[in-house]
Prior knowledge:
heterodimer, A: 383 residues, alpha/beta, Rossmann fold, five-stranded mixed beta sheet, 16 strands, B: 270 residues, eight-stranded mixed beta sheet, two-stranded antiparallel sheet, 11 helices, 40% helix, globular
Amino acid sequence: MKKENIKFIQGNEACVEGALYAGLDFFAGYPITPSTEIAELLSHRLPQKGGKFIQMEDEIASMGAIIGASLTGSKVMTATSGPGFSLMQEALGYAIMAEIPCVIVNVQRGGPSTGIPTHVSQGDVNQARWGTHGDHAIVTITASNHQDVFETTVHAFNISETYRTPVILLYDEVVGHMRERLVIPNKGELPLVERLRTSVKEGVDYHPYLPREDGRLPMSDFGSVHRYNVTGLFHDMWGFPSDNPKIVHGLLRHLVDKIQNNVNQIARYKEFYLKDAEIILISYGSSARSANHVVFSRRPRGEKLGHLELQTLWPFPYDLVREKCAKATYVVVVEMNMGQIMEEVRKAVDQPEKVFLANRIDGVFITPTDIRNILRLIQGKGV
Amino acid sequence: MAIKDYIRERFFPHIWCPGCGHGTVMNSLLRALDSLGMSKNEIVMVSGIGCSSRISGYVDFHTLHTIHGRALAFATGVKLSLPELNLIVPMGDGDALAIGGNHFIHAARRNIDLTAIVMNNRIYGMTGGQYSPLSGYGTLATTAPYTNIDQSFDTVKLATAAGATFVARSTTYHVQQLTKILKQAILHEGFSVVEVLTQCPTYFGRKNREGNAVDMMESYNKNTTPIGSKAKKENPDLIERGIFIQKEMPEYCSEYDKIIEKAMAKYSNS
């Protein structure tokens, strides 16, 4: 292990390192707490490798710029927080419809509105899922520590390029600003996915929006020999607008199925002591750190606690959660919102009445003590 | 090349109403591009939403039909990522200056090498005739049934103040001039704005009793005059046509290349 590959840094910096490792070429963004360090660092690092950084006039423009850049063949990213994420929603839907690979980082702070900018929250889980209008599928992934932030960032680019879809990296203020160790893997240690490009020769009709049998769409970069239309309207295999019911139905099914049919390939999670667990904690992001602390400190005392840490939030891995929780007496979802993932866990398990919530919604990081107090209440022990 | 060779015939007939000026603007633009002899592979057209923005579907370039008002932001990403491409951004007046006003002034301020064409028909056509930021005080629209009390932007003054380094205006009546201006705008290194007065007989014309398409085009001849003409001095209400601003300033992508050089030099030394 090279010494210069060991860092003591913020989560936002780990995200930058992961993005550069994945081959990021282009970043457009707008300053917002608590994600700004990502833009600052990339303004420094990207031109060193011939990449491009631009500070746009707002988050709407930032999303537009990365979509445009992606069409030229660049790997692209933007980073923001709640209010900026709200502004990005329309163009995010465009990237879904036009099938443009791009990565959007949301380092969550408290909302609604300007909310509590410098404090932690996980309140944007459902916005990531349904923030943009219309039926659609979306990929949203997260992480609880810097090594995982690095890896999930690389993974986000891989998913984005594989499925030609925007991927949301839903971090939070604690992960973003906390400092801890990161070991940057050597080149080649983590797999990198490059987008599929068309092998259709010049002069032969290229159908940019005709999926192969496996649902994948080989791309052609703007500037190369195939000229085609990209639109946010429902479109035919040439990318030309269409309101033909068959085409509309077929495209919407394709957009949803290409993600939903690959839930198991996309799903990432970690499990700790789940096999014989009577009480299972389910968590994600920074709150998973406290959940893990509870499990690891209580196991030596013989308490049968386990922890399922979700890294993929959308598409939600319902089958995985149902299987893992089948034998548990209680399932306690630990999160810093009013139960956004708890609702999904209730949908997933066979007995929704055994699912409880351990949360904080006051901008203060949820502690192991907070979780233990809830556990005592559930078990009828009193606090 | 024949103008037909720049068109995607597969996607015709177009959606524009009879008498609409947008086809004339497209024709002028294609003639300008043809005279420049650029490869179609080097040209990217980015548009937003509205009647004018449908132009991108009909032309055989790399075309990006985006969301309302944000065409210039998408175009900025394409251009900065691959500066050797030539970017043409046709927009309607509402698209460019209402919902897209912020992107318009900031693209101008950056002086990034894009050619913005503001196709000004003074109305929101696609949604059926609501007043736009260029409709003008006293006009009628479906959302101004008692006359419009909104004042207009002057596109030329706005673009100039925001820092555009090429600013021009023409009309669908003056197609020869329009073609020449578009050619110069595309050749200009920096942010170019060309405002084109283009008639909407279906909505603006009908609501405001301006007659049919021919009547409206003739009014462009009557109501406009070359920049600084004697006629303008005698009648200040006339709208000036021609190139208002044409100056050299550092272009954004070229400046960014210098940033890359600086960063690379510093990085390789450390």
